[in-house]
Amino acid sequence: MQLKGKTAVVTGSNSGIGLGVARGFAAAGADVVLNSFTDSPEDHRLATDIAAEFGVNTRYIQADMSDPDACRALIEKAGACDILVNNAGIQHVAPVDEFPVEKWNAIIAINLSSAFHTTAAALPLMRAAGWGRVINIASAHGLRASPFKSAYVAAKHGVVGLSKVVALETAREPITCNAICPGYVRTPLVDAQIPDTAKEYGISEEEAIEKVILLKQPSKEFVSVEQVAGIATFLCSDAAEQITGTTISADGGWSAQ
Ligand code: NAD
């Protein structure tokens, strides 16, 4: 599929799903803006490496997605935003009555409010360009709950709701807005949890994956970063033109339960 001439802005894209999605768009010919809150030589090298590999224009723009002004400035600095992927996200696990207020505020700001601010800034650019795609990386936790993840589940449910509203407000325009809801995706973040979980439960790493980490994921397989990237790219295809205001689950059957 050809996304040549389009610019994709992917928040939180110096690792994991965001980086995979950015690479997927570059492979489809789109120019790509990478982002995170850090500003290291490695961050900028990720962008130059993608440019060299896929022959597209890339930039790395530092912006802290917990800061509303920085969210809007990211889109302004990008200059063009045909495809907006709201991916930046963090997690914290604790019971509601012990959940640190600053963690709650940070998760709501980064995982939910940032998508509001970037979308608000990007829609005028999409309207001027006559085409746009807003793709929110929600989660199976945008549709289902788990204990100890109050802020994350609230934020991801919020992202699903926001996606529906943006879809309705843009329904008569060549713009769509959807949420992708992955189950557990094999990212460095998840990888790091496997040995610790095995140790904690006194079981093998294989058992830790099947019985603990993928407890709710009936396929007992991780979703891959490339699969999420493939869904994001599909949402930019002509076939997906009438797909708007919905969720696409990639969770090995989690949300069927
Ligand atoms: P990750 O930690 O590899 O990626 C998170 C990204 O967000 C990183 O690039 C990080 O730098 C960035 N980020 C964090 N705080 C930021 C801030 N203040 N400003 C800008 N960027 C910031 O994790 P991931 O697994 O790739 O997660 C990406 C998204 O996918 C998140 O929204 C997460 O909730 C969602 N998700 C992940 C899984 C999974 O199993 N890994 C499943 C469902 C949904």
Can you tell me about this structure?
This protein has 257 residues and is α/β, with parallel strands linked by helices. The chain has 2 domains: 7-185 and 223-251, NAD(P)-binding Rossmann-like Domain (Rossmann fold), CATH 3.40.50; 186-222. It has 8 helices and 7 strands. It has helices spanning 16-27, 41-54, 68-78, 101-129, 150-169, 188-201, 205-213, 225-234, and strands spanning 7-10, 31-36, 58-62, 83-86, 132-137, 175-182, 247-250. A 7-stranded parallel sheet has the order 3-2-1-4-5-6-7, sandwiched between helices. The protein is globular, with a radius of gyration of 18 Å. The chain starts with 6 loop residues before the first strand and ends in a 7-residue tail after the last strand. Nicotinamide-adenine-dinucleotide binds next to helix 1, helix 4 and helix 6. The site of nicotinamide-adenine-dinucleotide has 28 residues, from helix 1, helix 4 and helix 6.
Element-by-element helix/strand order: EHEHEHEHEHEHHHE
Q: How much helix is in the residues? A: 40-55%
Whole-number average pLDDT?
97
Low-confidence blocks of residues: none
Number of domains: 2
The radius of gyration over CA amounts to: 18 Å
Q: Regarding quaternary structure, how should these chains be classified?
A: single chain
Give the distance, in angstroms, between the N- and C-terminal Cα atoms. Answer: 34 Å
Q: Which descriptor suits the 3D outline?
A: globular
CATH architecture of the largest domain: 3-Layer(aba) Sandwich
In CATH terms, what is the fold-level topology of the largest domain?
Rossmann fold
Q: Please state roughly what percent of the residues sit in beta strands, choosing from under 5%, 5-15%, 15-25%, 25-35%, 35-45% or over 45%.
A: 5-15%
Indicate the structural class.
alpha/beta
Helix count from the secondary structure assignment:
8
The count of strands amounts to: 7
Present as ligands are: nicotinamide-adenine-dinucleotide
Identify the CATH homologous superfamily of the largest domain: NAD(P)-binding Rossmann-like Domain
Major sheet? 7 strands, parallel
